[in-house]
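Morning!

This is the sequence you dropped in the shared folder:
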Amino acid sequence: MRLKSALLFTSAILAFHANVAHANLIKNGGFESNVIDTSYRAEGAIIHNGGIRINDWVNSKNGTDSGGYDFLMKGSNAHEHGGAMRLHGYGENFFKSPSGGNFFASDPDYGPGTLKQYINGLEVGTKYTLTFEYALAQQYWYEGANNNVWWEVGFGGVTQNTTKLSIPERGFSGWKTAAMEFTATSTDDWLSFLSMRTSSGGPPFMLLDNVKLEAELKAEVPEPASSALMLAGLGMVGFLARRRRNGKA
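The structure's back. Tokens below.
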């Protein structure tokens, strides 16, 4: 029994150091915290142009904070009348993102704005993994297939692109997951998203949600006190094992 207890104790210490989690550096990555003009509905409201401001994010166009043809939308009714803009789609959850709440929508055809967040607390030379959900839809009242539409993502002086999405007329791509690696070149930097396209048959909208940025996991060096506890635990395991081999309790 004592040997089992010692093994459990040592395993717990090792597990603690093997599973140290790195915090997500993105604030409001699900676009749920927002300042809303009461004259607009929360869903389908244009950003900056009298409708919505997304907390912790900046939506800029040509270096100004005027934003572009970008919207904050609610998945459960993104296809319904009442907002400043609606998307093609049917059924309550047609556009519902994995988080089930709001998402960001940008039209690369009509003066898109760049969505940005300033990231602090970076470690120079450290690799960071960026993950997010994205999709392609089409604005209501418009027709024609949309081909090759994507997010251009910038961080640390480098840009990367998501997989290009294509949809038939009035179609929806479904939500996709992107994962990108970037290396920090300074202790703080801008993360940016810009919707892009090569062709369009009717106003395409790139959708974005669940943005996360985390440092790659590294082997943690135990603190002296923790190291002493681990050594003591291992020593106890060895001592009890020897006693058992010698026929002692």
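Headline: The longest helix spans residues 224-245.

More detail when I'm at my desk.
O.
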